[in-house]
Design goal:
heterodimer; A: alpha+beta; B: 128 residues; alpha/beta; Udp-n-acetylmuramoylalanyl-d-glutamate--2,6- Diaminopimelate Ligase, Chain: A, domain 1; five-stranded mixed sheet; two-stranded antiparallel sheet; globular
């Protein structure tokens, strides 16, 4: 990343580990609060990172979430070794889900995750191929007035 | 528009005959809106900061989700109670947890009929 990084931190995420699911995002929210990021951005970023983290827990064996903050932006990079997404357009539709009963028992898998990440982010990019995992780039601009 | 009805957690606790699991010292918190769902996906998509969350989902994801969206407190319906991890997280994050025997529909109905509003249409979180 660029030289003007304020903070960079990588969180490992274990697939299937539902009891620890969401811990990275809880820590990230604390970090953002400590740095003093605008609360309206914190809530959008927290929701996006939590949804993305849950996706890794639900669908992959392992993955990572890397947080990068510069004076201009807050960025999450998600990478996982999951099955990948066959039809990204379909996966972006609200309500479309391939979740299992186990995922639904945990309160997830309503087909809202990816669209909700996109809705909350200022910039959202997804790269995925069947058999090659999924990566997400999620960006929030810190100096934009709404 | 008239000011929204406010209820303290104490009033809510009495109305729903709820047991306080943690957060005894925060029952004077005022609540102006509530939302009920067992699906955290939906809470994350439609929840709003400051709400009271009613849920039947008793694993720690309920507390994590409440923390992420800045919910003020959680009421577990159908007599459910969160697991130990959820309770500890709630203590750390100052999120009161209560448990009522009422079913979801009845618990929500009681609160609504006392003037506590829902969260309305899905919020638009950012400018287009």
């Amino acid at each position: 990343m660029s030289d003007d990084n304020i903070l960079s931190q990588r969180f490992e995420i274990r697939g299937g580990d539902f009891s620890n699911a969401g811990k990275a995002s809880t820590s990230i929210k604390e970090i953002l609060q400590e740095i003093g990021i605008d609360p309206s951005i914190i809530i959008r970023a927290s929701i996006a990172s939590y949804e993305a983290e849950m996706n890794v827990v639900m669908y992959a064996q392992r993955g990572s979430l890397t947080l990068n903050i510069t004076p201009e932006k807050l960025h999450f990079k998600l990478e996982d070794d999951g099955p990948g997404i066959e039809n990204i357009e379909l996966a972006m539709k609200e309500g479309f889900s391939t979740a299992t009963d186990k995922m639904r028992e945990m309160g997830f898998g309503a087909g809202m995750g990816l669209p909700n990440i996109k809705k909350n982010a200022d910039k959202f990019e997804i790269f995925s191929r069947p058999g090659q995992g999924t990566s997400l780039d999620i960006t929030f601009f810190l100096n934009e007035t709404e | 528009m008239s000011a929204p009805t406010r209820m303290t957690l104490k009033e809510i606790q009495e109305l729903l005959q709820a047991e306080v699991i943690t957060g005894d010292d925060r029952l004077d918190e005022e609540i102006t809106a509530a939302g009920g769902s067992d699906l955290m996906s939906d809470v994350l998509a439609f929840g709003k900061p400051g709400i009271l969350l009613l849920t039947g989902l008793s694993n720690s994801q309920s507390v994590r989700t409440a923390n992420i969206i800045d919910a003020k407190a959680i009421i577990y319906v159908r007599g459910k109670k969160p697991d130990q991890e959820g309770i500890e997280l709630a203590r750390a994050k100052n999120i009161p947890l209560l448990s009522t025997q009422f079913m979801m529909y009845t618990a929500c109905g009681l609160l609504f009929s006392h003037g506590l509003k829902g969260i309305g249409a899905p919020p638009v979180r950012k400018s287009p």
